[in-house]
Amino acid sequence: MPGPAANDDDDRIVIDLRQNPHGDNRKYVPLLQIVQTEAVNRPGRLFLVTDRQTFSARTLHSIDQTGNYGTSSGCIAYHRPMRLPFIPREEKFFDMFIDDAANMLSAARLLEQFFRNYGERERLAIQLRDIEHTGDSISHDIGHKLEATFVTPIDREDISVLISRLDDIVDLIEEVADTCILYGISAPTPVALQQAEIIVRQCEQLQSAIINLRHFKDLSAYWIEVHRLENEGDRIVRHAIAELFTHGQDPTDVIKWKDVYSLLEDAIDSCEDAANVIERIVVKHA
Question: CB 3.0-4.6 Å disulfide test: which of 89, 223, 245, 266 passes with 153?
Fold first, then answer.
C-alpha cells in the first residue's frame, strides 16, 4: 500500500481487491495498519472493490457492511473496530431500464393504434414524437448516471448497448408513422397492421424480461419468443414485398409501401437485437 494513499488531500481511497482469491496473510498486515489510521478510517473515505473471487474458502478475514469482521483459528486477528464502507452496486439502473421499456411498449401500442385508427394519424403521430422525446430523455438520464456511478450492476458497455437498442426501437416506430404521413399514404394495408402487432408482442416480451432482469435468471422464454416473432415477421414481409411486384400496382405505391414495410421490418429486427443484449447480460451473470 503506497504512502500517498493515506494523504489527507485525497478525497477517497479505493482498494481494488478483485481477482485476489488467496495469498500469504502476512502481506495484509501493512494494509490493515494503514486503514486503521485516523487519516483513512473515517466514513466516506475508504472503499473496497471486490468480486466473487476476492475471498476464497481459505480466507481468514471477512468484513461486512457494518464494519464487523470475524477470524478463524491460526489467522492474524485485529480486534479494533474498523468502518469499511463497501461501495454498493447502484441498483437504480434496473428501475430506469424498466421506465425505458415501458416507454418503448407505449410507442409500439400507439403504432398499432395508428394503423387501426388511420383517420387520426396526424394526432397519433404527434403522440409518437412525444414518446420518442421521452425515450431520449430517459436514455440521457441513464447515460449521465452511468458517468457518475463507480460500481454498476452490469457491465458499462452492456448498459450503453441496451439503452441504445431500446432507443432504436422507438426511433424506428416513430419513423414509420412519419413516413406514412410524408408519403401521403391514404390507407394502411393488412400487412402493415400485422407487422405492428408483431412489434407490440415483441415489446411486451422485452418489457417482461427487463422487469425481471435484476435477478438474471428464468428469462430465456422471453428472448426465445422475441426470436420466434422476428422469424414470423420476416416471413410476412417477404411475402408482402413479393406481392407488391406481382400484381401490376402503381409504381409509386410500390416504392412507398416497400419503404414502410422495410422500416417495420427494421423495428422488428431491433427488438431481436435488444433481446440478444439481454441474453448476453444474463449469460454473463448466470
Answer: 89
